Amino acid sequence: MEVSKSSRAALLPSFLYSPSSGSVESLHSLTAAPTPTETRVMNRGSMVIGAPSEPFGKIELFSPMHYWACAVGGVLSCGLTHTAVTPLDILKCNMQIDPVKYKSVSSGFSVILREEGLRGFFRGWAPTLLGYSVQGAFKYGLYDYFKKYYSDIVGPEYAAKYKTLIYLAGSASSEAIADVFLCPMEAVKVRVQTQPGFARGLSDGLPKLVRTEGVLGLYKGLVPLWGRQIPYTMMKFASFENIVELMYKHAIPTPKEECSKPFQLGVSFAGGYLAGILCAVISHPADNLVSFLNNAKGATVNDAVKKLGLWGLCTRGLPLRIVMIGTLTGTQWGIYDAFKVFVGLPTTGGVAPAVVPKNLD
């Protein structure tokens, strides 16, 4: 049996959507006759995912519509969740910048409430919403693209054998691009949240920052932001994919395709929460650096290390960030996968609906 180049290209990414434990032999199962519940693909050799409810019609896997759907899901999952935890973010940033004044979670909340009232807990919500919405669009929208791109480069055998490396490379590439768009909003957000009187929000904070530090001032924290976000996202995506796969293999007796959609979304939330804890720990030193550099004009990384110390970089504000990032990440994966289900795509990780590429007979 001879497989055309176009068919082979369409088949490559299927390891990332199959129950395979990493063996290339799982390819051959896709050539068998489909069951009535499986979805056939007969459109230019591409794979198509169908769903009982398809408000946008059938979506070809790895088509522009697929990536657009992932991008919209990323906007919803990142923009809404980061804005919702703005009070925790404000407290975390202030505990990192001024630990003497903001000694603990309870006393920190009391200080903010006493000095600024309830409005003080939502300073910087606008740059947060805009910045993380755009970041989520690029992060999630490009993740599946890079997964396929790197799978195409290494070929089916290595893509299956080293799938975790595919997850890591795909997430790092998407986050590196996403942070270029997040960085200006992050710079404004940190100043609004940690420097009382700097600005009321995005509308006056962004022009003031550009006026006082120039356009380059918006990107002063880009390298530390990469240092925080890229390891965070690599851990977030790779650990989530593997945790969900392990849950369906060892903790859930029912195959994923037989589980209800609400149950699958519950698994996405649980896997995301566990992944979020790992993300918080690995990215926390860089998070402290970002807060320090964006708050102190002209400060350097060496200044931050000297003032905070290595132990302070790794632990200051960490318990609060674990709670915040765990909840944030779990909710993000729940929202993201809920949107994917809504448009007819499978949830992320574990076992996906079977697909059959064209021209295999």
TrEMBL record:
Main subcellular location of this protein, as a coarse class: mitochondrion
Membrane topology (UniProt): Multi-pass membrane protein
Each Solcar repeat, start to end: 65-149, 162-246
Matching InterPro entries: MCP_dom_sf (IPR023395), MCP_transmembrane (IPR018108), SLC25A3/Pic2/Mir1-like (IPR044677)
Keywords: Membrane, Mitochondrion, Mitochondrion inner membrane, Repeat, Transit peptide, Transmembrane, Transmembrane helix, Transport
Subcellular localization(s) per the UniProt record: Mitochondrion inner membrane
GO biological process: mitochondrial phosphate ion transmembrane transport; response to osmotic stress
GO CC term, one of those recorded: mitochondrial inner membrane
GO MF, any single term: mRNA binding
PROSITE patterns: SOLCAR (PS50920)
Family as reported in the entry's similarity comment: Belongs to the mitochondrial carrier (TC 2.A.29) family.
Function statement: Transport of phosphate groups from the cytosol to the mitochondrial matrix. Mediates salt stress tolerance through an ATP-dependent pathway and via modulation of the gibberellin metabolism.
Protein name in UniProt: Uncharacterized protein
Taxonomy of the source species: Eukaryota, Viridiplantae, Streptophyta, Embryophyta, Tracheophyta
